[in-house]
Amino acid sequence: MSEPQLPAVEVEGLRREFKTKGPPVVALDGVSMKVRQGEVFGVLGPNGAGKTTTIRILSTLLLPTGGWARVMGFDVAKEPEKVRKVINMASGAEKAGYDFISAKRNLWFFSQLYGIPGDVADRRIGELSERLGLTKYLDRKFYALSTGYRQRATIARAFVNDPKVVFLDEPTIGLDVMTARSIRDFLIEEARKNGRTIILASHNMAEVEAICDRVAIVDKGKILTEGSPEDLKRSLGAPALVMEVSPPQAGFEMLAKVPGVKGFTSSIEEERGLSTVQAVVDSDAAARAAEDAVRKAGLKVVASWRKQATLEEVFVALVGRGFKEREEQDVV
Amino acid sequence: MKARALVRLWSIFGEPLWVFVGMGFPVLSSLAFSLLYYSIGAAGYIGFAVLGGVMVSFWGNVLWSMASQFNWDKQEGLFEIYLTSPASISAILIGMSVGGIIGTVPSAVIVTVLGWALFHPAVNASWGGVALTFGLTLASLYAMGMVLSSLYLTYGREAESMNEVLQEPVSMLSGLYFPVLGGSSPFPLALQAVASLIPLTIGMDALRKTLFYGDSVAQVWPDMAALAVMAVVLLILSSYALKFLENLGRKEGTIAVRIR
Predict the structure, then answer these.
(1) Global ipTM
(2) In a domain, A1, yes or no
């Protein structure tokens, strides 16, 4: 019988507090998870949920204040040097290159941080650039690259050392649709063909759904649920209810009292003069009751329909509100 | 180390305008002091002004391209890449120093050529002593840059203000354009003692002795020993400071904070 494969990432009771002038801020509150080798694992949550803190601890930039984490069997707190040999990371928010040298020289320089022989580095840079559509732009100075090509270079950098585990924090943030898609395709290929483990922190639900084998939904430093995107969506039971309501308004608190409504999110569309409400319901009866509740509040339901649940509805069902409302709550 | 040195050189020589602009301050300050000494009849000091112009190029490079570099890297998100790689941060800093020294040579050469062509300062050099002293001065000066670079990691953008605070006082105390140690120093003994803690002060004094007074290695060995000790101590200090600050940053969550 073959031995069970070592998990790529193993986290148990991970906790991280940050000191402030007031009471300490708890960024992670007992996170536990296990990621298999070759898996694309998503950490999905609104801003401030603890995604970046998780990535920073796993990539040895931050120490946990409680619990432990291992990457390829190495403890991130006690053996950072060993962890660093098998990982790489990239963030969508970083510039990550020296402006006045070419993209190729930047990639070569970063490959040398891992002691990769020159010819191997050159070959790898060539291959990665080809696959990311960067080849034509390799000789351009970094500052002269567009945001999209700079991000392609950043992604190439994150794979230049042939890492076992790659941590990506919002890798396609602010990118156009085509660039984002080509980066996603590249990531899927890296996991499928090269057995690379990719941990993707994102608040982009479509992205996580498109490329992740499994996803952990996080909020306020805790994992709310974990599973494949399909399983998570299936767990909701019934399609979500979408209503267009007039006149436009922000509050739909009456929905919180309707039995069978697990949560809802709303937005105002001023140009159209209405609000769009999405409610996660557990049955068709609950959907009808939700519509009735809105009408009873003196509002007109201009249109309503049902739609297949996305990961956003999974989050809404767990927290009661959407990402946007959650972030606004934190600001208040 | 080699890779970081190359990045610095590619950056410097990839933008010829920068090389030209970088020469401005050393050339002008050297010319100003040379003209001053010429006009007051202190021709013997003109060589000091030219030498000062050469060394101020390196001092400027240490301050603006070494000390504040990691701070800039931190703001840009590059420091995170260094930290999450297995590379030694000290090796990266040494590479940065080597690249910085080579990249500053054109400025130093221009100051020298212009100074000698315009003023023909008298030279009575012990060239072996000059070469050794120059090498040791740069080693200790850039080691100081490495220490500053480590310390600046704890600062945000105020690191640039720290540079401004340091630039002129150190230039004056270290005697870039006039002797500050010994009998001809305008400073009292206590201030001379303080100035001696700066590697550039010892280096400038030893360079003047070997370049203009013909002092041999045997005569300036105490200065050279002091420079060597300073270089080693500062290198070790920088290595410890980096490790300490890395651990502190991982604990406090400050090492990877970017200014976006």
Answers:
(1) 0.85
(2) no
Q: Count CB-CB contacts under 10 A for residue B172.
A: 15
Most confident of A70-84, A90-104, A240-254, B73-87: A70-84
Domain that holds residue A185: 9-227
* B82·A85 Cβ contact <8 A: no
Question: Residues of A with CB below 8 A from B250's CB?
Answer: 60-63
Please list the alpha-helical segments (H only) found in B77-216.
78-83, 89-119, 127-152, 158-173, 189-195, 199-212
A3 in a domain, yes or no? Answer: no
Token match 């990535």: residue?
A55
Answer whether residue B256 shows pLDDT above 60: no
CA distance B115 to B47: 8
Please indicate, yes or no, whether residues A184 and A276 belong to a single structural domain of this protein: no
Cα(A72)–Cα(A80) distance, integer angstroms = 12
Report the percent of chain B where pLDDT is more than 90: 58
CATH number for A19: 3.40.50.300
Shared domain for A197 and A256, answered yes or no, is no
Question: How confident is the model over A12-49, as pLDDT tens digits?
Answer: 999 999 988 889 999 999 999 999 999 999 999 988 89
Structural domain count of chain A = 2
Domain end: A206, A227, A248, which one?
Answer: A227
**Could you give the CA distance from residue A266 to residue A277 in angstroms, rounded to a whole number?**
4
Q: What's the gap in Å between the CA of A10 and the closest CA on chain B?
A: 18
**A213 shares its domain with A257:** no
Report whether pLDDT(A106) > 90: yes
Please indicate, yes or no, whether residues A204 and A93 belong to a single structural domain of this protein.
yes
β-bridge pairing A9-18 and A66-71:
antiparallel
Dig out the tokens for A118 from the structure.
Answer: 């020159």
pLDDT tens figures, A244-278: 999 988 888 899 999 999 899 898 988 888 999 99
Cβ separation A113–B86 shorter than 8 A: yes
- CATH code at A267? 3.30.70
Cβ A230 vs Cβ A240: under 8 Å: no
- Last residue of one domain, picked from the residues A180, A199, A227: A227
